[in-house]
Design a protein that fits this description.
efflux transmembrane transporter activity; about 425 residues; mainly alpha; TolC-like; porin activity; transmembrane; three-stranded antiparallel sheet; 3 strands; 10 helices
Length: about 425
């Protein structure tokens, strides 16, 4: 017999060990990361929506440029052929001494200038075709024919609401504002993640072990526990990170107001552009009608005799065609100005049905905004009541007033001054006037 114990074990042993650890911090970070991932997906969707709106406006601009230039080419094709034949007429009149050389030079210069202006529309048409085909995802080379029947009538955009209502719709529909709100929410979640990382990292773990040794009293055993690790040296870094993200939240909020003001300015600028374009079209339309009436009167009532009179009549035709083309170009710009308003508002079309839906959505948004303002007002009243209750001691309040009065105006403690104002507003106003 000995003082020691004897042990026995099987010749071949097999151990099975299963460990399971759950980190509470990782669960919290995963939850916040999921929210940020959803916000980033929504931001990408808003960017795609805005890119689609801008692409629609660019396509509309190129489309109406092509349509106006296309009609201009139809108008000028036969006139340019007549211009080339008129050079021979001028040369014939000059040789026969019917006109002086100076008059021949002047007539030739007038036709050349008119021909240059009219051929510029062909270049505009070619450039607009390249731009439109590129926007449509087609090969830039080659021409393209578009339907220009909408330029045969003058539209009346009477469905546009008031400018104030359009601003409200823009603030509700523009994707950029939603994108800024989502970025602000991402920064808010970063602040919450930083606060979570300041807490101890708690881990719940389970350890299960199984042995094939038949001589053991217990062949399977497990242990369950909680392990906490607290990194105090990381606290200053996390505090600085929280302050940085808080500053970003404030910056995003200021950016929201700035972007909203910019959106409202775009709506007003596009509305003013629509009015100005309509005025320019009315002027060009009036000029064209005057030229056209004079041309019709000249053709119908004046008996044309001789080549010289025909030259003057051809000049009238060319100038009338130029005024007609200017009218068509301005009409195309008028259509584009309307689409620019839709782009600044953030909608594809405005009709009675869609306008009614937008009005209902605005009414719901006003109700939600009123609830948020009421909630903020209650929170402020509660904080104010706490500040007043904390300064019920008049002696301490007097000492605090003396301290603030002795300080420079630039070093006023905002919290203390608000507390004095909540308790005695008259005294706070007199203090401020005294310091001023």
């Amino acid at each position: 017999m000995t003082y020691g114990y004897s042990t026995s074990q099987d010749r071949h042993l097999n151990y099975l060990n299963v460990d399971l650890a759950l980190s509470v911090l990782d669960f919290g970070l995963a939850f916040f990361n999921t929210q940020q991932g959803e916000d980033r997906v929504l931001m990408r969707e808003q960017r795609e929506i805005r890119a689609g709106q801008n692409l629609s406006l660019d396509v509309a601009k190129a489309y109406f440029q092509v349509a106006a230039a296309q009609k201009a080419i139809k108008i000028t094709t036969s006139l340019l052929e007549d211009c080339r034949s008129r050079y021979e007429v001028i040369s014939k009149l000059s040789k026969s001494r019917d006109i002086t050389p100076f008059r021949a030079f002047e007539e030739t210069r007038r036709f050349v200038d008119m021909e240059k202006r009219l051929t510029n529309y062909i270049r505009t048409y070619e450039n607009s075709c390249v731009e439109l085909r590129s926007l449509l995802g087609m090969r830039p080379a080659g021409k393209i024919l578009v339907d220009d029947s909408m330029l045969n009538k003058v539209p009346e955009f009477n469905s546009l609401p008031d400018i104030e209502l359009m601003e409200q719709i823009a603030l509700l529909q523009r994707p950029e504002l939603y994108e800024i709100d989502m970025q602000k929410h991402i920064n808010v979640i970063e602040c919450r993640k930083t606060i979570l990382m300041m807490l101890p990292n708690v881990r719940i773990y389970t350890d299960f072990t199984n042995s094939t040794n038949s001589f053991l009293y217990h062949m399977s055993w497990y242990e369950l526990g909680i392990r906490a690790a607290y990194n105090l040296l990381k606290l200053p870094q996390q505090i600085a990170r929280y302050q940085a993200y808080s500053s970003q939240v404030d910056a995003e909020e200021a950016r929201t107001f700035a972007q909203a003001i910019g959106v409202m300015a775009q709506v007003r600028i596009s509305h003013a552009n629509l009015i100005a374009t309509k005025e320019r079209f009315d002027i060009n339309d009036k000029v064209y009608k005057t030229y056209n009436d004079n041309l019709k009167w000249a053709v119908a009532n004046q008996k044309i005799t001789g080549e010289l009179s025909r030259l003057e009549l051809d000049h009238m035709r060319l100038e009338t065609a130029e005024t007609e083309i200017d009218r068509l170009m301005t009409l195309g710009n008028y259509y584009v100005a309307y689409y620019r308003i839709l782009n600044s508002i953030g909608v594809r079309h405005i009709d009675a049905k869609s306008l009614g839906e937008l009005r209902n959505e605005l009414a719901q948004a006003k109700v939600r905004a009123a609830e948020e303002l009421e909630k903020a007002r209650r929170t402020y009243d509660e904080d104010r009541a706490k500040r007043v209750a904390a300064n019920t001691n008049l002696q301490n309040l007097t000492e605090l007033e003396t301290t603030i009065v002795n300080q420079p105006l630039t070093k006023f403690n905002d919290v203390d001054f608000i507390a004095i104002y909540d308790a005695t507003p008259e005294k706070a106003n007199s203090m401020l006037n005294e310091k001023r």
